[in-house]
């Protein structure tokens, strides 16, 4: 309709048009939009030509004539909303600014209505698919009842019900949180209380937990609450800890285990099996879901549906376990009723970051969720902390007996979040945390050494120093940590020596990041001395020592009676003096009169050779017969070799000798050519999982690999091994044995 015709219409006629009522909201919205468009045109006509509004205002002319019959997907609607142009600040005072805002909101409202109506039909169709299978299941049960007085579901029926239930639950979790309509008079609670909105909509809503009243009315909330109430007390804590992590984040199983042990809700004995079993139970109840990774035999990271996560956030807040998320605001650091403090981004700028505002005597847990500069948390536990009572039992210095978890490091496996301690001197306050069970500085930079105060933590079970790139030294008196079970110094590249007393940690079960170096053996802990760790189950080693052979490695671990997992990486090995080539310039100096220096070098070399011979003679004298044929510990189930230095596997590592090993990884080895002599018959090898990476010279065919060398193989990963041929791997180099 022309603008002139619109402007000349009588006011009564326009009002009559607006009074036409329709049951379809799309029609009503379009009527209103037509009126606003007419208003926009009329106002625009009265403006000067130079002040005319660009057509891109109000979300663009292409959105004006939205077809009422074309469905708009949630993704397209979201992208449309995001791409809307912001109002021009220079023209905020123009008369048409408010009109453009009404136009934009009407168009978005119309798109939402179209989306909901279309998706309602889609959900109805999806639900209809389950009627026939369920009716068939009911008929089978009735027939069984006629034949026998005892009616039971077969395993096949139970499996069918599980599949249907999973689909229905996923559909239920995607219902958007729209406010419930008020009850009509005459309608009973029985017909309205359990009504579920059947619109398939938003997958992830930011801050959905903030709408508490709406959330509590949702079927998802009731389901999560019901499942939570069925759990044992410890498992309730396990599940509620997921409320701390941001929405849609991957959470690692090992990190969860560390935290639960530190809180004292997970027994240390059998902790790894218990955690795995609990997480599997949560998956069965569809409270969490595994993060799929085709390169993993089984998942070790987990995510949570946003609706389930929001429900747990609210529950954790109501019982006083965690308190950090609030309606329409950024997460905030608070001390919960149950004495848990979660550090979030910009916590350091809050008033509560000051010791005067955060009394620390009763804090049980400090967990860093997203803060980059957590130094201030140390000061809560300072000697001059002005928090009421300053001593316990007449002691002259404060002791914080309540604190069990001090997790300042990174909980994410990725290094996207940079964490930094600006003043490492604050670590001296660790000496007051006498009851600490878990201490994590994972991924924190600028920590060059651990203060000796850490040796005061006599009840510490877990010390997590993973990826502390600036860390150069562990405390010499580390044996004071009598209760220590888990020590992780993986990726601490500056550490070149192990303290001598490390082998005195009688309860240590997991040691990750042990370094074999060229340091004087009289002042450092050697690999062979770790045999004193009678409970050691997991060990990862980095070899930075020149001439440390594969033979020496496996002779050193031969007496590790409890070892289950071993990972070895040959790193920056220094060449021996006799192997270094003399360049042209140095050679001329030697020939031209450097005989004296040459004689001196030879004397040094001879002295070093004598020392090496004496050391080797002393170490291997009693086991001279066993030097050629060491054996793997019978308890060893997983062996990971990285940057393997030799061209051939030694005899004790050939497949035919691996009768107890279940997982074998060989990642990197430019010289390795094969797995030994091809046996005439299949070997007794028990390896089920095999990973081969970066082995350019390894030559073997799939038939021999699968039938002769590794007859029990169930999983193979092959990457950049061009001469491992004819393997039926997928596009990323993975093969799995068919079920």
Automatic annotation (TrEMBL):
Residues 1-20 have a biased composition (Polar residues). Residues 1-22 are annotated as: Disordered. Pfam families: LRR_14. GO terms for biological process: defense response. Keywords: Plant defense, Repeat. Residues 401-569 form the Disease resistance R13L4/SHOC-2-like LRR domain. InterPro entries: LRR_dom_sf, LRR_R13L4/SHOC2-like, WH-like_DNA-bd_sf. It comes from the Eukaryota. This is Disease resistance R13L4/SHOC-2-like LRR domain-containing protein.
